[in-house]
Amino acid sequence: MQPLPPESARLLPEPVRRVAAWCVVVLLVTGVVVVGVRLCVEFKTAVVPVLLALLGTALLGPLYRRLVRAKVNRSIAAGVTCAAVVAVVGGATYIVVAALIDTGDEITASLRQAARSLSEHFGAAGTSLDDLASNSRELLGKFGGTAASGVISGISVVGEAIAMAVLALLLVFFFLRDSHRAAGTLRSLVPRHAGDTAEAMARRAYQAVEGFMRGTTVIAFIDAVCITVGLLVLRVPGALGLGALVFVGAFIPYLGAFLSGAVAILVALADRGFVIALWVLGVVLAVQVLEGHVLQPMVQSRTVQMHPAAVMLAITAGASVAGILGMLLAVPLTAAAFGVVAELRGRYASPGAVEAAESSGSPGSSSSPGPAPSS
Fold this sequence. Notes:
Blueprint: H1 14-42, H2 44-69, H3 74-122, H4 124-134, H5 136-149, H6 154-177, H7 182-189, H8 195-233, H9 239-249, H10 255-272, H11 274-299, H12 308-348, H13 351-360
Helix pairs in contact: 1-2, 2-3, 2-6, 2-8, 3-4, 3-6, 3-9, 3-10, 7-8, 8-9, 8-11, 8-12, 9-10, 10-11
């Protein structure tokens, strides 16, 4: 005979006890996540360079591996890769900043003109837009002062940013040079029976981040080139600056493309009229269709696919935690989390559930679950 359960356990029905158990699990996981986020915010000077270095390593990994396969010393290959990224990022930053500086006045004037045009048709709402555009520089100055008020001075903010950038670059060098030791180091940090599972999870997370970074960079470049060419053909002022905005905004999925496209349409409406604005809208929509139906399936076919709702929630959460930097980091980190979940589901889900997920073609289903966990 089986022993009777304690009297307190029989007071609640079985479904209620299961719900209570799941609530405890959810509360514990939520508490761990909240504490982790708070610690990351408190130690952001150290955490942000590590995250940026991981993204940079994922993006530069193919170049480094190609150099290593060419019999180049690992340290030299990592140094050449870091020098290349400094040259490329520095050159791209210079081009973007120069384009925005050269065309910033034109874009601002066009936005003010668009706001005036809207105010003639929509009254108070347009007037508010006009006031916002006319005071954009003042608002930008106030925002910069507010952002710097939490630190000792503006110089310390710049110094902190430079220090984090230098630290991230050094971490990229070490991550690339010692990448062949990562699996062994991870296995030494976990129990022996969990080594295979931990390594497989880490590989899936890294592959998701690597695919996202490479795919997003390629797509952002193609989007920026296509829209810039379209704006130049339509003779819209500030085409280079608007193209730079499109490139930067592409790293924030959905929201970035919407904002940069809206700015381009408003500039065309103010300077070239309603017909040209419609043509710019057509160019933006055509590029978005090209991205969604051609570039995304071709370029990011190996990336862990996420539902747009999950992406938007991740961007919102990242913005609430760390502003623009959080928006940029939210999606690759979420992609890594989806990769880990897919790996765990492929390993521990029932065979029938895995077969059903694969047959339905659900996003993130694990096609190569990796080595089986040791007993």
